[in-house]
Amino acid sequence: MKADLPVSLAAPFLALPCVTLSVVSHGHGTDVLRLLGDVAQHSARIVEQVIVTLNVPEPDLSAALEAADWPFEVVLLANTARQGFGANHNAAFERCRTAYFCVLNPDIRFARDPFMPLLGHLQESRVGCAYPLQSCGEGEAFNPARELPTPASLLRRHLGGARRNQGQAREWTNGAFMLFRSSVFRRLGGFDTRYFMYCEDVDICLRLQDLGFALDSAPEVVVAHRAAHASRRDLTHLGWHLRSLWRLWTSRSFLQRLSGRGRPAPVLAPAADSALERRSEAPSP
């Protein structure tokens, strides 16, 4: 069943549907089905296509996805070998035919449509990526954007008990929910696949700002996200995280900011979108 949208929200700046979602499962079949259920209930008029990538074999999920009558197109990609976060979403983007592309974790849940308000933020001429606030089911919703992950900031965060974003510049947001203009994602070349599982989101946010685009949060949108934090429990993930941090710390975008030469891009006044872009309470997990 498709959710009804007020005409004032659906027009005049967008022709719906106009969003492609990319979701990667690593054995998260139940989460994927719940997420697609939320999309079907609240966002079916906005989402044209959902691309689900199976990073490990999941025959039960494959069968469930193919058997259901979804109100949007579902494309199923099955990897023969495990791929990283960036490689999976880049492969999904190759099949994207809409003006907006959303990277979405399978453990995201929402009780009302998050996409239309985010699309409104993306009508600002220099906003290249918009994202919602997140709730982990405990306490108030928070802005997931964070300061630059320098060695000092990581020590403050993990050892000193620094409060999230207190007096800090927000340079990047996590990859659990990122809605991009497809034209911007294409211009960036997608995620840098030299990272594996960690820091891809930091890198793409910095490169996006290097191109003169801005990140923009939508404080009126809250989604539930159950963060796994696997690198705190698994030595393999910890190794991937440390290698990705080293790559980030030696990247040009990072070093420019560390030296003070890089700056977050401002959000400029709204401008007319391209022809392509013109066409085309959070529950507990």
Task: Outline the structure in words.
With 285 residues, this protein is α/β, with parallel strands linked by helices. The protein has one domain (12-279): Spore Coat Polysaccharide Biosynthesis Protein SpsA, Chain A, CATH 3.90.550.10. The protein has helices at residues 7-10, 29-42, 59-67, 85-93, 115-121, 151-158, 182-188, 200-210, 235-249, 252-258, 275-279, and strands at 19-25, 47-54, 73-78, 100-104, 108-109, 127-135, 177-181, 214-225. It has an eight-stranded mixed sheet, with helices on both faces. β2 (47-54), α3 and β3 form a beta-alpha-beta unit. The radius of gyration is 18 Å and the shape is globular. Residues 1-12 and 265-285 have low confidence and may be disordered.
Q: Top keywords for this entry?
A:
285 residues; alpha/beta; Spore Coat Polysaccharide Biosynthesis Protein SpsA, Chain A; eight-stranded mixed β-sheet; 8 strands; disordered N terminus; disordered C terminus
